[in-house]
């Protein structure tokens, strides 16, 4: 049996890292003898999270362009040239059969180098609106696995495969883990649990909202798991108490989802895909600070299917307490949202993506 080799690249945020790890795990299941190497950006969170998942990773000296003129931007051409040379060296030494990119700064030079070396490449695009890197890489890619329809205006139509986003397989059966999850967090099984997800780095506006509403939640007999992100943990850890669990990062996503009755979340593509599988009532608060406002588009696709509630940051002060209280009191509405968001789930996305990768071997 041939011993295959795969290089995967995805990083910067959990939304790029975890899809790459999910794909690697599925490939490993199907090809137990395969060799894996991840390539990330030095100093980014993938340099910790990938080794924790059991994979080797090499770092490139690469960062994104800032929106204003900075020293970082002036260094960008040098970093890009250095990363391209290093990517070529990695590919020459490792000799992969296929290279897979899930987004993030490092996937650009790596997939570019793989394409130049005529090694098959696969792009996994999580968002409804692709970033500039994937648009450029798509011209040479062999397959582009997407989670949303109508991406022909960005990518060559004949290469697009609608797969959904890869998600952690431990989310598939969270219903069986509720008691264990409640115990793990030391929660009260008789109270409703609100889960707040601001993304791996955190979301300032969401954190400000939760800080302002915390007393209201407690008055309504709601306990809170509040993921404030590592950038904000020092500011908010003071609120940690019996009914409020403040965390910077969540390792056991299956447990927080199992414990939650209602979820407040940003609308990054990976989060949206996970929430469809989890099937709990969600209030999306999309980040307005992302390219082409793609988080609002991600959330709107769920709202259009009557599977979630969407509140823009500009509406939070006037609308949030009314919307949250109404949802908390209305079991029928909660069940309707749960049922509808679950219909949009693609639990087999990772296997379908791996099927596309296998076609290139």
From TrEMBL:
Positions bound to UDP-N-acetyl-alpha-D-glucosamine: 13-15, 127, 168, 200, 250, 295
Keywords linked to the UniProt accession: Cell cycle, Cell division, Cell membrane, Cell shape, Cell wall biogenesis/degradation, Glycosyltransferase, Membrane, Peptidoglycan synthesis, Transferase
Record has Cell wall biogenesis/degradation as a keyword: yes
Pathway listed: Cell wall biogenesis; peptidoglycan biosynthesis
Membrane protein topology class: Peripheral membrane protein
Domain Glycosyltransferase family 28 N-terminal: 6-144
EC assignment: 2.4.1.227
SUPFAM superfamilies associated with the record: UDP-Glycosyltransferase/glycogen phosphorylase (SSF53756)
MF term (GO), any: glycosyltransferase activity
Catalytic activity reported: di-trans,octa-cis-undecaprenyl diphospho-N-acetyl-alpha-D-muramoyl-L-alanyl-D-glutamyl-meso-2,6-diaminopimeloyl-D-alanyl-D-alanine + UDP-N-acetyl-alpha-D-glucosamine = di-trans,octa-cis-undecaprenyl diphospho-[N-acetyl-alpha-D-glucosaminyl-(1->4)]-N-acetyl-alpha-D-muramoyl-L-alanyl-D-glutamyl-meso-2,6-diaminopimeloyl-D-alanyl-D-alanine + UDP + H(+)
Localization annotation: Cell membrane
Domain named Glycosyl transferase family 28 C-terminal: residues: 193-344
Any one Pfam family match given in the protein's UniProt record, by short name: Glyco_transf_28
Entries under InterPro entries matching the protein: GlcNAc_MurG, Glyco_trans_28_C, GlycoTrans_28_N
Transmembrane segment boundaries: none
Main localization category: membrane
Family: Belongs to the glycosyltransferase 28 family. MurG subfamily.
Function: Cell wall formation. Catalyzes the transfer of a GlcNAc subunit on undecaprenyl-pyrophosphoryl-MurNAc-pentapeptide (lipid intermediate I) to form undecaprenyl-pyrophosphoryl-MurNAc-(pentapeptide)GlcNAc (lipid intermediate II).
Name assigned to this protein: UDP-N-acetylglucosamine--N-acetylmuramyl-(pentapeptide) pyrophosphoryl-undecaprenol N-acetylglucosamine transferase
Protein encoded by which gene: murG
């Amino acid at each position: 049996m041939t011993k295959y080799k795969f290089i995967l690249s995805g990083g910067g945020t959990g939304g790029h890292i975890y899809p790459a790890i999910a794909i690697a795990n599925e490939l490993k299941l199907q090809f137990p003898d395969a060799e894996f190497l991840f390539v990330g950006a030095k100093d980014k969170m993938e340099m910790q999270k990938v080794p924790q998942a059991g994979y080797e990773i090499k770092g490139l000296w690469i960062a994104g362009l800032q929106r204003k003129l900075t020293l970082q931007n002036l260094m960008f051409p040098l970093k890009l040239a250095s990363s391209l040379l290093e990517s070529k060296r990695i590919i020459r030494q490792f000799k992969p059969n296929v290279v897979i990119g899930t987004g993030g700064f490092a996937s650009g030079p790596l997939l570019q180098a793989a394409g130049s070396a005529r090694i098959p490449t696969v792009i996994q695009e999580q968002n409804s609106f692709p970033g500039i890197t994937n648009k450029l890489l798509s011209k040479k890619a062999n397959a582009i696995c997407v989670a949303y329809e109508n991406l022909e205006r960005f990518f060559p139509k004949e290469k697009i495969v609608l797969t959904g986003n890869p998600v952690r397989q431990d989310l598939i059966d969270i219903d069986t883990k509720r008691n264990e999850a409640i115990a793990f967090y030391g929660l009260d099984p008789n109270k409703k649990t609100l889960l707040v997800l601001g993304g791996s780095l955190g979301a300032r506006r969401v954190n400000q909202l939760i800080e302002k509403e915390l007393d209201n939640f407690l008055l309504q007999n709601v306990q809170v798991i509040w993921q404030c992100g590592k950038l904000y943990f020092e500011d908010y850890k003071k609120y940690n108490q019996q009914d409020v669990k403040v965390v910077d990062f969540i390792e056991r996503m299956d447990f927080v989802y199992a414990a939650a009755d209602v979820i407040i979340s940003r609308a990054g593509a990976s989060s949206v895909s996970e929430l469809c599988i989890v099937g709990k009532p969600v209030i999306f608060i999309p980040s307005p600070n992302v390219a082409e406002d793609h988080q609002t588009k991600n959330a709107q696709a769920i709202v259009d299917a009557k599977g979630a509630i969407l509140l823009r940051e500009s509406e939070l002060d006037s609308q949030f307490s009314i919307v949250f209280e109404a949802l908390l009191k209305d079991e029928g509405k909660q069940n309707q949202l749960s049922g509808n968001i679950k219909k949009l789930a693609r639990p087999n996305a990772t296997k379908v993506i791996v099927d596309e990768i296998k076609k290139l071997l």
